Amino acid sequence: MVHMHHYIIMRLSITLDPDLHQIATARARARHVSLSKEINTLLRAAVVSPDAPDPATQAYRDPLTGFLVSPGRPGLTLEDFQRMEDDDDLRHLENLPKT
Q1: What is the pTM assigned to this prediction?
Q2: Which residue has the higher pLDDT, 76 or 82?
Q3: Going by C-beta distance under 8 Å and a sequence separation of 6 or more, which residues neighbour residue 72?
């Protein structure tokens, strides 16, 4: 048995119940992955809390602007801020009383 850390494969012998082995093997074949990879996927899904936030989907604070940024959405650029300011100025001018 080999025990190693950080991105190095750890080998471990376990005994699966026949029904679980059959399920994992069928899933691995269907997904075209190894049995080990499928068992890792199943174990990870079983031990990670469904309520735990996924770091890939959590908002983060942009160090330059200080604004919260949602992953998967583009951040705001200086041009975006200037355009918003121009739009705000135009709305203000449009609402001035006509003389």
Answers
A1: 0.43
A2: 82
A3: 57
